[in-house]
Amino acid sequence: MLSTFAEITNDMVYDMAIVAKVCVRPLLRRVLDRTTGVEEVVPIPCGSTLESVCPSCAHKARVLRMHQCAEGWHLGSEPERDSEIDHDQHEDADADDQGKDSDSDRRVRSTRRRPDVVDLPRVPADDRTIGRTFCSRDGQQYRPSMFLTLTLPSYGPITDGVPSQPDSYNYWRAAMDALLFPKLVDRFWQNLRRCAGYKVQYFAAIEPQQRLAPHLHAAIRGAIPRHRLRQVIKATYVQVWWPPCDRPVYMHRTPVWDGSGYIDADTGKALPTWEEAVDALVDDSEAKPAHVMRFGTQADIRGIIAPSEEADRAIRYLTKYLTKAIAEPIVDSTAAARDAHIDRLHDQLRWLPCSERCANWLRYGVQPQNPTPGMRAGHCPSKAHDREHLGVGGRRVLVSRHWSGKTLAEHKADRATVVRETLHAAGIVPPEVERLSADVTAPDGLPRYVWTDTRPGSPGEYRKIIFAAIQQRRAWQQQYDAAKAATDPVENHSASDHGGTDAGPAP
């Protein structure tokens, strides 16, 4: 037992904060209560979703996502839907071959599909988002759903997660597929909704395989025949009509800004604008897309019935890597080979364009869409180019609009409400909902609490603030445990019910 606070080291406070699920790198704010004249320093959780940054905040974010996934997966009734246009339904976008409207300069897409892919089945769609109910021989009703895993194709032989033949491994294609993976996933959901017979809803997470290629895990509400799912996977593709980006034009020199656009520094000739470069593709009957991507042949399709331990395991697995970076460091016998693999992939990702507005287009002799001064190839601000993200620059969690009928903030509020109601039922007064809120007013009508930025005066002060937050968290946890024991709630072992008072008010 430590006799004084001075004996507690930074490492000890860090470890205690992780155990208590308290943020280890909070933002500090000074709050003045104008009514009482009391001023205090309040730690605000950083909210990071990466375990390497803040294990406590990452854990809370994952638990919230688990709760969101579980609530929408096996709904028995339709969630609330907007009376306006269903934005969750994408417009038909099979077309990928660009053309020009004869009556205007507007680019249009034809409806031709590639001849080397199978056709999509067409199924009449019901206006529903929940799955059908089935009845077993013993008269029991159940509503099955599905768990789906989609992968990308091979780019070369892999051994222990790294290429066995790095020189022949197709890093260019691997990088392009990683950058454009969200487009392929989006196209898959579009196609599946046309073929499933209802408005498919999903909760999906993008995660890295051991070889660092992104893949998708998805919880799908309702059951879809496996042969139809495989047909949709096989028929889904994306072809990107960009200017060629496989051979750099400028490797040792850089185009310069002349006030209205980018020019070749040696010749003074203006680089083609984005519109001019794409128009050239439209007018060229022999032009080919810059990149065509499909899913790999490996796809895992499983039926899931809830409530069940299998459903809980699937939710835990679905959210397992959300707290990890794509290029998470590892320490084993393959660490050096893995780092070399990451370096080679990152070298491609740094210079390839991530979108029409990417500064990397200057490297390929084309001005990006809506160019601005100061653009430099290899310095696009999108995090997709970072070594940490390896092409996955967007959201890691994809949730359809009518999954649960609630936003993530509403799910968080629901969990907090459960905690507060449990405390009330046991006769325990929980912390005020509007505690230190900037919306609370004093008798003069002005805000009662005034928030200002501050910094700790010393490392010891910062340690003391975190230690106080740990003590407060422990007190709340003890109150909540006592309240549950007093009210004797029904035991619930669902995958989303982990984390204690994570649902409650945070210090």
TrEMBL record:
Pfam families xrefs: RepSA
Record field: compositional bias (Basic and acidic residues): 77-122, 490-500
InterPro entries tied to this protein: RepSA
Top-level taxon in the UniProt lineage: Bacteria
Region (Disordered): 76-122, 482-507
Protein's UniProt name: Replication initiation protein
